[in-house]
Amino acid sequence: MTTIAQCFSIDEAQVLRSVLAGSGISAFLPDELTAGVYPSALFSNASGFRVQVEDEDAASARRVLAAPERPAP
What we know:
- The protein is α+β, with helices and mostly antiparallel strands.
- It has helices at residues 10-22, 32-37, 58-66; strands at residues 2-7, 27-28, 49-53.
- A three-stranded antiparallel beta sheet has the order 1-3-2, with helices on one face.
- It starts with a strand and ends in a 7-residue tail after the last helix.
């Protein structure tokens, strides 16, 4: 697994996971269970929330996340 992003909130990490899923890349949030067990961690986990992908998807995932946002139609 390769960490491709570190987010300040679980919500931000979930958005990135959704963006990647829309491109066919499975992403994992290994810190998601911590946020569920400790609700105070939802918005301020001291180490942040990692977004991880399979090693072979890392380069593609970085390209997807680096792409400029497109305006909504």
